[in-house]
Amino acid sequence: MDLGFVRRCLGASVSRLGSAGLSARRLWLSLGLAMLEHTIAIRVRYPECDPMGYLHHSIFLQYFEMGRVELLRSQGHQYAELEQKGLFFVVVKIEVRYKAPARYDDELTLTTKVVKQTHVRIDHAYVLRKGQTVLAEATSTIACVGRDGQLQAIPEFLAAPAT
């Protein structure tokens, strides 16, 4: 990505940000101009349901993690490889708004988006649907930590989509 292109699109204030040490990729993403998004299909499995036959509310969190992992994979990265390099992402905040139930064998779609990224955290938004019906909307914040659990900067290669 060309910082000159970003400057031409957004004006002189970007030059000041760029001169403060922000790379073009990080700047582009932090300004929300390159929103990453990925959608996966999920079929509700029998053991994920409560005794009434509805998808248990705790399973939604597992689905959101699946969405984050597959979004990362769609950008050419595997979480297992990041862990081998000493990079870990921990959930520091999550909020779910349940809107409608799902049942055993329902086919769902989950859309996961990166809505903000700083040098140490990534904010995601999720929409889980059955057909056109929204079942849940959620947001989460994950932070990048090392093996010691201390915050560390997100590597540059994760700052923007792989090209």
List the keywords.
disordered N terminus; alpha+beta
Tell me the structural class.
alpha+beta
Largest sheet: 5 strands, antiparallel
The run of helices and strands is HHHEHHEEEE
**How large a portion of the residues is in β-strands, by DSSP E?**
25-35%
Helix percentage: 25-40%
The whole-angstrom Rg is 18 Å
Distance between the termini: 9 Å
What is the number of E strands? Answer: 5
Q: Provide mean pLDDT, rounded.
A: 84
Shape: elongated
Q: Enumerate the strands of the largest sheet in spatial order, edge to edge or round the barrel.
A: 1-3-4-5-2
**Low-confidence residue ranges:** 1-20, 27-34
Number of alpha- plus pi-helical segments: 5
Compact overview of the structure:
With 163 residues, this protein is of the alpha+beta class. It has helices spanning 3-10, 12-19, 24-30, 59-74, 79-84, and strands at residues 37-43, 88-98, 107-117, 121-130, 133-145. It has five helices and five strands.
